[in-house]
Amino acid sequence: MKARDARAEIMPYRDGPLVVRGSFVLLDEDGREIDPGRRTVALCRCGRSRLRPFCDGSHRRARYRAEGGVSPDAERRHPRLDGDG
Amino acid sequence: MTVGLEEELLLVDPRTFDAVAAGPPLLAELDDPGHFRAELSPAQIEIVSPVCSSPLDAVHALVAGRQSVSRAAAGAVRLAGLGAHPFAEPWSEISPGRRFELIERRFRWGARQGGLAAGLHVHLAIPGADALLAVYNALRGYMPEVGALAAAAPYFAGRDTGLASIRPKLADALPNQGVAPAFAGWGDYEALLGWGRRTGSFPDHTKLWWECRLHPGFGTIEVRVPDAQAAPADVETVAAVVWSIARWLLERYRRGEPLPAHPIWAIAENRWRAAADGVEGTLVDLDLMRPVATRTRIQELLSRVGAYAGGPAEERAVERGLEMLMRPSPRRQRAIAAERGLAALVAWAADRTESDGAA
Prior knowledge:
The complex is a heterodimer. By secondary structure, chain A is of the alpha+beta class. Chain A has one domain: Ribosomal Protein L9, domain 1, CATH 3.40.5. Chain A has three helices and three strands; from the N terminus they run H-E-E-E-H-H. Chain A has a three-stranded antiparallel β-sheet with strand order 1-2-3, with no helix packed on it. In chain A, a hairpin with a 5-residue loop joins strand 1 and strand 2. The two termini of chain A are 25 Å apart. By secondary structure, chain B is α+β, with helices and mostly antiparallel strands. Helix content of chain B is 47%, strand content 13%. In chain B, helix 2 packs antiparallel against helix 9, helix 9 crosses helix 12 and helix 14 crosses helix 15. The two termini of chain B are 27 Å apart. Chains A and B meet through loops of A and helix 11 and helix 13 of B.
């Protein structure tokens, strides 16, 4: 369990944010650290959040649609995404 | 608002990790009926917290109770927080006592199945009779989200059930279980209790074992949907989430916002989906009546209710729900069982249950 915590895990929630846990550092584009204030964070991927880079649930009102994993187009371009390649 | 917790824990043999009917001697040794109580199955014990002003204080009391049980057991019995034992014989023994004897006589096979389920119960005291009823009616609709987050019983009778939790199906073996009806007013509730008395169906509200039930005398709602949890941190998160949903609903009621009372059949469908897939499936959005990914739905709920948690530590406990979404208990249990077997799975649960903190 400790070994798993030593890496970051990023999970796309279907129709929702990217959720990140584990060991990670969040930076702004000037390289300054953003304090997430917690160990597991939800990052906006629909673009509608007013708390960017964090999710505020706005994807729901926007009826944002996205896979909970790899999209079909990404699958075609990177067919071995979930393999060892 | 105040909160009290009860948890039903499995008693297991420290070598074989099979269920062991050690409840009666342990309770005699503990001799503290205010904090430790018998369950229908003698292979379980119930730990009761005092009434607290924070769910985290109530969890601390449960953890202290777990330690007291372990001391009383002196290494002869271990405690495991799971929704059901993964490989014990699927036929509950019945604890001694007239109350349990009557339950067995009336419900027969139902008592033998229902007795195997182990839950975490959250009692919420809501001030004001009208507020209590409005929060109750609305809270019913969020029970499947809570059940999905807390699902912790994929194995039963030595087999993988394919479900995230067998526990709702065990509960279904008894009458007056599952999703509770909404009540338009207290008169409707009184009428139901009167009907139960007149027809000999249930003598009072304590025989209505719904997943979300009213105790009008105490001014409380009892949420019975979560499976028993192993790690104290998971107990904290589940309790803090239930508490925060109720406080969010109460706040909306006080602002004059009409609260929903979702239809029983729609909640029942979500109850099934939560039992089947836990957080890894879909639930029906009961306002828009369309399916949504359960993880996304719960993540939204956590971010909405976190502000109502009542304090920074409680809010952190709610936010830790994100970790439970990413690493759901049924998935972890299946990984352990595949690698090391079902006894090792119970040992893993017992280690977490008897630890004093980290997940």
